[in-house]
Amino acid sequence: QNVIPPHGDWPFHIAHIDHTLMDIELCSPKTDKVLGRMWITKMIDAYSRRYLAFSISFDPPSYRSIMNVIRECVHRHGRLPHTIVTDNGKEFESVYFESLLAHFRVLKKLRPPSLPRFGSIIERLIGTFNTSFLYNLRGNTQVTKNVRQVTRMVNPKNLAIWTPQQFFDRLCEWAYEVYDTMDHPALGMSPKEAFEKGVALTGNREHLLIPYDEKFYMLTLPSTAKGTAKVRPGLGVKINGVYYNCKAFKAPEVENTSVEVRYDPYNFGIAYAFVKSAWVQCRSQYYNVFKDKSEREVNFYTEELRQRMRLQQKDFTVSAKKLAEFILKVEAEEKEMYELRRLREAENNKVLKLNDILTPLNEEKDESQIQSATYDNDEDNLTIYDEVMS
Questions:
Q1: C or N: which end of the chain has fewer Cβ atoms within 10 Å?
Q2: Which 3 state secondary structure label does DSSP give 236?
Q3: CA pair distance 218, 272, nearest whole angstrom
């Protein structure tokens, strides 16, 4: 299983996915506060050395990073590679990633850790990315490789002027337009020319096209350990310790049945349930608190609340009600560490929305179905339940 062809025989035959912490400090567009360095997750076509897709985030590599680059690949090209080559990171062993590849019959190959040359394609591209793009930008961290040379005048944190959105725009231009049309020394032509010639020679394989629709988007969302949740009358379904409800759950034939569920790791306020042969959107019981907060951010608040309760020698059980109250309290305090985290999460969501990979629902879909999947507008009448976070 460790025998991996070096390049592939046609475009989209073999692609490499890898993560890199970019050598540049970014800042907030509102406060000019330095937010730090972002990770880039990229998918490279081995045949043409072309960028198929990439995603950037302040979050360290996880299944969310992989799903974002998978969505972007389908969003841009309408297909996935025949084989994906990865390293031995734990994020590539997630159930969500494995099940998605299995559904679309995509093979996964692991690069042997003892044979670094198997990653030469993507490692070489990182070098090109740094020298021809990143190191030409103000605020790059190239100088920090030699700590003795770092002074206040050349400290990247004092020179950071690029916001995540501005940086993302220029990165798209460089990857999809500039680099794509530059002659590659190993190919004797540009990646775009190699890709187009490969397609003309081996065919477009239109039978492998994947529509970027609701069905595909739901396959990229995580679920619970069981994959299903029971609809409790008046409460809805419980996902990650929080109840989510919608109008579709009020039907007598739906109550007390198990339905397939998915949740959005970038918006803890909503989840999805498969009811009557259709996906419907559900809202959290604390929608106004959890709205637009990522799973990682909520987990951070949960752990912080647990730690405070331990120090106060109180009950360690964290309920959804306690968590919502704690989040409101913390946000009111406006401490620097929480402010930085909120700024990072906000910039993450802005960058993702630039490619519309968080809005997959078809705009032509029947509005009645979308409306039936949400709460009534009168949120003051909602009953708040105190349930334990699992």
A1: N
A2: strand
A3: 8
